[in-house]
Write a structure and sequence with these properties.
By secondary structure, the chain is of the alpha+beta class. The chain has five helices and nine strands. Strand 8 and strand 9 form a beta hairpin.
């Protein structure tokens, strides 16, 4: 009887947030070979005995290594081959996740995670450079036609904060009036009934996503 080949199966996650107005990715320092001591994207083996899917594996890895459940997690791409991992022929199902920065503060303060602007990321091991590049492209492209950037915000936000995060992610300015009208007309967000003072002006109305699902639309 032919023996099944041994293949390494892992998940890797591009963990994105905003730091000082710039799109940033979370990196962890590897504790075991290969590449021990080198920063990489959060990742780990799939555990067949406990992971019902690679999505479940990605959630488990993020919980174990960073201590969080992301606001948004989406499968990105499958990377495979003989040379991507020194341990042998491997498959990595890559994901990308969006998290408000305040949720990452405990892991950053504990030294478990370092946040670095995506345009300043160091060279990463395995094929994590390629994974990161594809994840950033997917995130920025999808942000031009969906509610994706809103998952980088706290559960409640002002319209100004929402526009700002869109501009930070896609890298272009948006017309204030058009943006607000489109967001409200689409029904993607709804008022919370609360207000927050953000400066000397009158308190700004707070909004939230109408549901946990991603909603498509088109930015001007």
């Amino acid at each position: 009887m032919e023996r099944a080949p041994e293949v390494i199966v892992t998940v890797d996650v591009g963990l994105f947030t905003l730091v000082e107005g710039a799109l940033a990715v979370g990196l962890i320092r590897r504790g075991a070979p290969p590449y021990a001591g080198v920063e990489a994207l959060p990742g780990g083996y799939v555990h067949p005995e406990e992971d019902g899917s690679t999505h479940a594996a990605a959630l488990r890895v993020l919980d174990a290594k960073v201590g969080l459940e992301p606001s948004y997690l989406e499968q990105l791409y499958t990377f495979s081959g003989l040379v991507r991992d020194p341990r042998g022929w491997s498959i990595s199902v890559a994901y990308y996740a969006l998290v408000p920065s305040e949720q990452l503060a405990p892991a950053v303060e504990a030294g478990e995670l370092r946040l670095v602007a995506v345009d300043e990321a160091p060279k990463l091991p395995f094929d994590h450079d390629e994974i990161l590049a594809i994840a950033v492209h997917r995130l920025r492209a999808k942000s031009t036609y969906s509610t994706l950037p809103a998952f980088l915000l706290a559960p409640s936000f002002t319209l100004s904060e929402l526009q700002e995060v869109y501009e930070q992610v896609i890298g272009q300015s948006l017309d204030r009036t058009t943006f607000r009208r489109q967001m409200l007309d689409l029904g993607a967000i709804e008022p919370t009934g609360q207000r927050r003072r953000t400066g000397a002006s009158r308190p700004a109305e707070l909004y939230r996503l109408r549901g946990p699902e991603l909603r498509p639309f088109g930015l001007p």
